[in-house]
Amino acid sequence: MVAIKRAKNLKFIQEWNRSIILNTIRHSGPISRMEIAKKQGLSPTTVTSAVHDLMEMGLVKESGVGKSSGGRKPILLQFQPDSLSVICIAVGHTSISMAEMNLEAGVKQKRTVPVGGRTGEELVDHLLQSVELFLRSDGYAGISITVPGIVDAENGIVRYNERLKLRDVPIKKLMEERTQLQTCLENDTNAIVLAEKYYGSYKDCENLLYIMIDDGIGAGIILRDSLYRGRNGGAGEFGHTSIDRSGIPCNCGNRGCLEHYAGWLGLYARILAYIHRGRITQMLELAGGDPMAITPDHFLIALNLGDELAEELLEEMAVALSVGISNILNILDPDAVILGGELAQGNERLLTKVNAQIAVENIHGAKDDILVLPASLKGDYALTGAAAVILQEIFRVPG
Amino acid sequence: MVAIKRAKNLKFIQEWNRSIILNTIRHSGPISRMEIAKKQGLSPTTVTSAVHDLMEMGLVKESGVGKSSGGRKPILLQFQPDSLSVICIAVGHTSISMAEMNLEAGVKQKRTVPVGGRTGEELVDHLLQSVELFLRSDGYAGISITVPGIVDAENGIVRYNERLKLRDVPIKKLMEERTQLQTCLENDTNAIVLAEKYYGSYKDCENLLYIMIDDGIGAGIILRDSLYRGRNGGAGEFGHTSIDRSGIPCNCGNRGCLEHYAGWLGLYARILAYIHRGRITQMLELAGGDPMAITPDHFLIALNLGDELAEELLEEMAVALSVGISNILNILDPDAVILGGELAQGNERLLTKVNAQIAVENIHGAKDDILVLPASLKGDYALTGAAAVILQEIFRVPG
DNA sequence: ACACTTATTTTGTCTATTGGAAAAAGTGCA
DNA sequence: TGCACTTTTTCCAATAGACAAAATAAGTGT
């Protein structure tokens, strides 16, 4: 049954309006009080009073005057992204990035600490300590942490991460007790798709999928403008889409899972098999002759060098992905599908091939309607993801 | 960009609270004022005043007293579902059902008019006229219309229906002009999944899929407690999930679409082909020896009679469906998947086979966690669907 | 310089919620 | 049976936020 929303009082309406006004300034600023009032259907009085509060908080500043349209010049209001900071932490399998960022996801200072083989409790302690050392002065609005693996975002608990040996770690609680700062936790892929929507090129997409192609393949899903997590945070297991009923058995119980054809672990297994069978590939040379040393980078470089095996595998990847994506398009009809992750980032040829394949396969794949697109965020996108999570929380209209 | 919510005033809060209180009485009634106040965190005064208004409107009535717990006995409040009616219209390909229903989707009076070969404008005129004749007295809260095919629910326009020759018909506008009553329009499958959630056995499902297996296969999708329609209402094309890359070509451009293996049109084509090749089946006898006369019912009956061909086709259906459903489970991880439509309704063996198959294929198909379930609404479920659409609208908490 | 515009602020009104008191209707024990 | 205590419901005055109207500020255009 639908949870009945909680009743609210006068104070709530003020907060609601203040939040709307702040977001209007954030997204449409510089803007005058009068224009906000018109845009949001509020009385000028209400806007004046809310803006007064926002200026007192330092979140908004008057910044010059606009053009007159026959009367008094409007006083323009501007959002002040540096009035507060958020601490963003992107936990990876090999390193932890940590940054102080402003309210527009701009980096103020950054630091990376190695995981250094730490796992489980030791890793958590290490993390808590590092954060404590990282904090200076105050003016922090909160902390945001992203972790790969299964995350219970609602309760702030890392449910499970194989490689980091984390199981049911109540990170949110631990961090809040230690720092007294509001803390958000989210899965890394979810965070990144939020970042693409709020700080990348996909602002207008109500329904957005981010397909992350690394060792395995996962998806971050935004539907109706907010993250979709499924029943127990189990949504987005895109890598286990079966694209071939009689394909390779997967340890998920099914056969022909997409991951085996388009994820790095699957690809790597095939590369090894080919090499074992005596096939020649530049990937081996690039890895210094050691098959165990081949990395995704070697694959991408070999691709650019025109390596035949790499080509072949790319083709397979594209076909496999296009089948899975076509199915998603039919079911969800999203505004866009983003291809990201180590094997897709900067791999334009994969994108081209996938789109071509989908155009053939799918009703929705109309000519000039390219739906599968590249990630738009470069650089510290993992940190931008963490920032997106907490900033979305901070600026969310209540109710 | 996220649409910023509209600003609100005092009147809004009153409506909001009234709506919350009404829904509390609807779902948890009979209930006392005090209990509502506690449950919703409202002051007793506020509840009293809202209840006063609701009683004046006739939506709520005092109905006896409850048990005392040491003080004054509570006066219980009860929802009055018969205080208003809604007109529900389920347009089908062969007939149009029309009913006056109360605020709990109970039928007060009903009528079915045949489509009788009417199409396009003629059909629409016929429909408008029939509704006008159907209306008696007043006390109507609105009209709800469901139509198969592509529907733009937001604007109340039937975009496209092949068989009824409808294209861009602004039904909502036409009906509202004619009757002066608020009118909702929705796709039939979407309406039915809403009905399963609000008036069936799936009340607790936040994320729910209804797979409708008729001529083709479509899906109605509820995510986070409300209908998901995709970019242009194009979501739910489940029948065009490709389950076999080298399968039968489909006019959607892809190959091996689920529809061909599990939808009636696909099944029928296969049955004809088998008969043509001389295969013996009881379906032919049931249809009086005329292959063109075979209907889904004949298939279902033959199945119960142990017909070999029907068995074979059922097995294929189950396998095909399970592949498609497994993919959905991996991506959306819903609370439940409902199998409905002519070929699934009452077809328990299909359900059993699909579940068995999924248990093998899928991580999520854990033992006692049967996710694929039968439709729970019997009888006039198409009308219940229409009712669900408008009642959900009427009782929705604003904001 | 004067009439008209537009933007912002001030002032007073309106209204839904609310806390607390009062009323209504009980319970339970001596 | 009477009296003290509870619980539910209603009444009342206070509060606070939105708002309309008026006032003020700062223009434009002729």
In words, what does this structure look like?
Chains A, B: This is Putative NBD/HSP70 family sugar kinase. Chains A, B: It comes from Melghirimyces profundicolus. Chains A, B: Belongs to the ROK (NagC/XylR) family. 2 copies of one chain form a homodimer. Chain A is of the alpha/beta class and 399 residues long. The first copy, chain A, has 3 domains: 10-81, Arc Repressor Mutant, subunit A (Orthogonal Bundle), CATH 1.10.10; 84-195 and 381-394, 2-Layer Sandwich (Nucleotidyltransferase, domain 5), CATH 3.30.420; 205-374, 2-Layer Sandwich (Nucleotidyltransferase, domain 5), CATH 3.30.420. Chain A is 41% helix and 21% strand. Chain A has helices at 10-28, 33-40, 44-57, 120-134, 171-179, 188-199, 258-262, 264-276, 282-286, 296-304, 308-332, 348-361, 381-394; strands at 31-32, 60-65, 75-79, 85-91, 95-101, 107-114, 140-147, 150-152, 157-161, 166-169, 183-187, 208-213, 217-223, 226-227, 336-340, 372-374. Chain A has a 5-stranded mixed beta sheet, sandwiched between helices. In chain A, strands 14-13-12-15-16 form a 5-stranded mixed beta sheet, with helices on both faces. In chain A, strand 4 (85-91) and strand 5 form a beta hairpin. In chain A, helix 1 packs across helix 3, helix 6 packs across helix 13 (381-394) and helix 10 (296-304) packs across helix 11 (308-332). Chain A is globular and about 80 Å long. The two termini of chain A are 18 Å apart. At the A-B interface, helix 1, strand 13 and helix 11 of A face helix 1, strand 13 and helix 11 of B. Chain B binds a DNA duplex (30 and 30 nucleotides) through helix 1 and helix 3.
